[in-house]
Design brief:
- This protein has a single domain, classed as GroES chaperonin (10 Kd Chaperonin, Protein Cpn10, Chain O), CATH 2.30.33.40.
- The model has no long low-confidence stretch (mean pLDDT 86).
- The protein has a six-stranded antiparallel sheet, with no helix packed on it.
- A hairpin with a 2-residue loop joins strand 4 and strand 5.
- The relative contact order is 0.31.
- It has no helices and six strands.
- By secondary structure, it is mainly β.
Amino acid sequence: MQLKPLQSHIVALKEEPMEMTKSGILLGAAKEAPAYAVVESVGPEVKTVKKGDKIVYKNYSTTDIKIDDKDYIIVKEEDVLATL
């Protein structure tokens, strides 16, 4: 199943927060971990984000969907804070 976003919406695959740095340091559980996701598809009105971009988004402004044991989000382009 493929989600096709409408207008200025973005469908992205959520990423789990890192638990260990590359050098092996264990990270504690943050109260509010940054919300990261990889863009799977974009609506026709999206101008600044493209498929494959890694985004940071407002965690409270998404619609969460689980398909085939994968966690996806649908977020408006205006709620994307940055790309990595």
